[in-house]
Each structure stands twice: as C-alpha cells, then as structure tokens.
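cron nightly-structures :: item 1 of 1
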Amino acid sequence: MAVGVVGVSFGALAPAAGLSPVMTMAMSVLVFAGGAQLLVTGVLAAGGGLVAAVVAGLVLNLRHLPFGLALAGTIGRGPSRFLGAHVVTDESTAFVLARSDDAARARRAFWLLGAIKFACWQVGTALGLLLGTSIPDPSVFGLDAAFPAALLAMLFPMLRRADARRVGGGAAVVALAASPFAPAGVPVLAGLLGAGLAGRRRGSGWSGAGSRSRPDATGSVAARVLARAVRTIGNRS
C-alpha cells in the first residue's frame, strides 16, 4: 500500500518536471527505483540539469551494489538473475536476510515481495498520472510530501545511532549551505560530505560518540548485508 501511495506521488509530480506520460511509465518500468526516480524528478522540476539529476540518482542507488552481492545466492543463476537484479529493493533485502536460515523460504520471499512491489509501483504511477491531469497542482493534496515523509519514516530509526546523527546533521548543514549558490541537484551531492563525520570504529564503539552505540535493527541488517557481500566476493576470488 505504501509503495503504491509513493508511486501516485511520482506519477502526479513527474509531468511538472517535463516528463511525458510515456517517459514517466517507462522510467517506472525500466528504472524501478522510487527514491532515485523522485530525486531525479525533483531536481529537474527545480530547474536542475540532467547530468546533476542523473548523478544524484546514481549516487542514491549505490547501496544496491552490496545488496546485489548479498542476494546473489538467493536470486539464482541464469536469466533469472537479471530479472531478480531489477527487483532488488531495501525491503526485499531485509526480508531475505531475516530468513537466511531457510534458503527456499528466502527465495520465495524475495520473488513474492519483488513482484508485489513492482506491480504496486506501476499501478501507483499510472494512477498518479491520471490524477495529475485532473488536478492542476498536486501539492494542494500533499502528494509532493509523500516521498519526503516516506524517507523520514525510514530515517528516524537510524538516528538512534550517534554516528548516523552526525552524518545526517552534517549532510543537512552542507546541503542547506549550498542551496542558495549551487544549481539544483548539486546540494544533494554536496551533502555526501556529511559521511566524513561518521567517525572511525574504535573497539566496539565509535570514536567521538562519547558512549558506545547500541545495536539496533537497522545496524544489524546493514552489517548482515556487508557480511554476505564480503563472503560472496571471497567465494569468487
């Protein structure tokens, strides 16, 4: 349901960025990356250049590299691997890692979730396009806030970690400082400088945090993704 709602937001806002209905649906089918699609649309709508929009989308989707390595064994081999790579998402990765003790169950969860999300995203995009043609200003109904709200919902649990708060705060400061001077889309890329505030691991804690970070669900999922990615690389070397 949430995926469909965000898809409606993308479909309704894409025409404002200059995308035709055909381009909008093609982007949803071929790219299938809600965060990147909305980021690109937002940059273009704000007057940013195509290069900045595409680079920002690619940077946001870099997280799929370790996702793909972690899920390589689950997706399988042959042609199915190409299709599976297309439907890899944050949620499918978390579901698979939560069922890593049962390979068959993990594979079923991956394909079922991938198919449902893909279908909901396409239906949501199409509904958004229809809604956008009948409503001159989709922001009146708050559709422009759907994606930021979804991102905040994913961000808040991560802020329990001291290093995540430093990175998020630093990125926000850099992006806001660059906004009055840099072209649209560039402040988002400049915000990556906030990653330098993460600190270095010292023993079981993080330097500069003042106290040891408590393990949480977000951190454990990230750790499992990286661990499985490293094992996949090691097995192939």
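cron nightly-structures :: done
Residues 1-160 form one domain.
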